[in-house]
């Protein structure tokens, strides 16, 4: 009868364990949830849309721009000052409408920084006091506005803006990889807390059982009162550790749920330790990677936003130096135009035998005495360029050092995972032997406590080694934007 009872009990325990395993959440599942619904991933995608539209706005500047401007209506009724031939002043009433419309098509010239345009213009003047109407117009006009000896912002924008766009695209991938790294950290925070909770529950149950056995031994005279009290103290400490472990696991669970976008339900009560915690699977299967440092560095230079930023920052420093030079010297603007124009009392008069319309203008500014201000601005820009070059060189060295350190760390942690897993197995076996020897009165309470501590430390070290490995794995992905497991660039 007892054998059947034990068999049924074993089956129920196995079914419960299989059910718990079926409901466990893996690391990959958590990372997928974080990528899909976390606030951090949504912010990254929103920033990317801003980057795309900003670049489209930049590109639109170099395409033809068609615009219509004017004043319609432009009515005035008032008294105006009129100087008479004898020098006296009279105030005459006026009542008129002076409306104007201008249609223009313009195109920027990036290499020179100028603008060429075509225009049509129509003006109507109504004098309501005299009851007259006049029209003035430009049926056709073409013109050019060309800065001379000035800083050409458009030429530099064509070099820098594409880098900013590429930098923003890679920043999206980096942000999403940072989401994965943060989710991994929170995942293992909860996993470590759950393992500590399992250890606390097991120790509480084992200490309670050993204490009950010790009570029988005391009656038989096989154990001292001091050893019994030590076991009783172990039971109390196990109860205390269990309560603390429950609280830590509940807090870690809520942090992970919040980050990946889980909705907290009414049962999530951290203060009572009754939060519905995610049951996490231990990611024991780690990829067997052999990462070459040179390849990792090459992928980082090709993929990272920071590597693109190195080139952008140097270009910006060169741009600022040229701007300081040209904005503090001779500046001139050439404006020229040709077209047709006419006027008359009727609208059709504007288009009948129009007259030539030409104009040319050269405006310039030449600083003569600036008391060293121009030179100071140029020297400041030159010093800033040198500082940017030095900073970029230092950042490149730090960049390379991070890659080298992370590759070396990943290889070392791969070995640590194997060693700590073996130590965990040995610690569990040793504790089981020590427990059996204590039941047979062949081991002291002190030695049993030492075996328990070593068993728990080995278990924690194994989980912490896994945590360090996966953190290093996803950190290397973040630093290179390359998946060495599948040998392909990371894309989203």
From TrEMBL:
The keyword Cell cycle does not apply. Pfam families: OEP. Its main location: membrane. Keywords: Cell outer membrane, Membrane, Signal, Transmembrane, Transmembrane beta strand, Transport. InterPro entries: OMP_efflux (IPR003423), TolC-like (IPR051906). Belongs to the outer membrane factor (OMF) (TC 1.B.17) family. It is found in: Cell outer membrane. SUPFAM superfamilies: Outer membrane efflux proteins (OEP) (SSF56954). Residues 1-22 form the signal peptide. This is TolC family protein.
């Amino acid at each position: 009868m007892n054998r059947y009872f034990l068999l049924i009990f074993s089956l129920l325990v196995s079914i419960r364990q299989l059910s718990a395993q079926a409901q466990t959440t893996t690391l990959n599942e958590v990372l997928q949830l974080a990528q899909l619904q976390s606030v951090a991933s949504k912010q990254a995608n929103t920033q990317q849309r801003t980057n795309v539209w900003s670049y489209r706005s930049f590109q639109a500047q170099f395409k033809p721009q068609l615009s219509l401007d004017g004043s319609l209506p432009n009515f005035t009724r008032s008294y105006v000052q009129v100087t008479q031939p004898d020098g006296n002043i009279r105030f005459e009433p006026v009542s008129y409408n002076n409306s104007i419309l201008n249609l223009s098509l313009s195109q920027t010239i990036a290499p020179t920084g100028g603008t060429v345009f075509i225009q049509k213009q129509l003006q109507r003047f109504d004098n309501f006091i005299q009851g007259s109407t006049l029209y003035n117009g430009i049926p056709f006009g073409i013109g050019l506005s060309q800065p001379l000896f000035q800083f050409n912002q458009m030429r530099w924008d064509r070099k820098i803006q594409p880098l900013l766009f590429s930098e923003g695209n890679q920043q999206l991938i980096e942000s999403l990889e940072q989401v994965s790294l943060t989710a991994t950290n929170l995942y293992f925070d909860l996993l470590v807390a759950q393992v500590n909770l399992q250890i606390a529950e097991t120790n509480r149950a084992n200490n309670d059982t050993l204490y009950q056995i010790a009570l029988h031994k005391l009656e038989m005279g096989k154990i001292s009162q001091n050893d019994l009290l030590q076991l009783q103290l172990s039971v109390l400490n196990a109860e205390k550790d269990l309560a603390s472990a429950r609280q830590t696991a509940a807090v870690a669970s809520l942090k992970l749920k919040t980050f990946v976008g889980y909705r907290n339900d009414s049962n999530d009560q951290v203060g009572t330790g009754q939060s519905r915690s995610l049951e996490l699977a231990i990611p024991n299967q780690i990829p067997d990677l052999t990462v070459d440092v040179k390849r990792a560095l090459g992928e980082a230079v090709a993929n990272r936003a920071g590597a693109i930023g190195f080139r952008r920052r140097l270009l910006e420093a060169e741009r600022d130096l040229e701007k300081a030079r040209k904005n503090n010297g001779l500046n001139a603007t050439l404006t020229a135009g040709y077209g047709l124009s006419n006027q008359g009392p009727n609208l059709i008069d504007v288009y009948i035998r129009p007259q030539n319309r030409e104009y040319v203008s050269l405006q310039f500014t030449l600083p003569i005495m600036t008391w060293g201000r121009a030179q100071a601005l140029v020297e400041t820009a030159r010093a800033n360029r040198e500082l940017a070059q030095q900073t970029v060189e230092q950042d490149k060295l730090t960049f390379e050092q991070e890659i080298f350190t992370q590759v070396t760390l990943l290889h070392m942690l791969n070995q640590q995972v194997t060693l700590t897993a073996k130590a965990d197995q040995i610690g569990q076996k040793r504790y089981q032997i020590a427990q059996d020897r204590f039941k047979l009165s062949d081991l002291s309470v002190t030695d049993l406590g030492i075996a328990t501590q070593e068993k728990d430390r080995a278990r924690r070290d194994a989980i912490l080694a896994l945590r360090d490995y996966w953190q290093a794995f996803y950190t290397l992905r973040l630093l290179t934007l390359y998946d060495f497991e599948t040998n392909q660039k990371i894309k989203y």
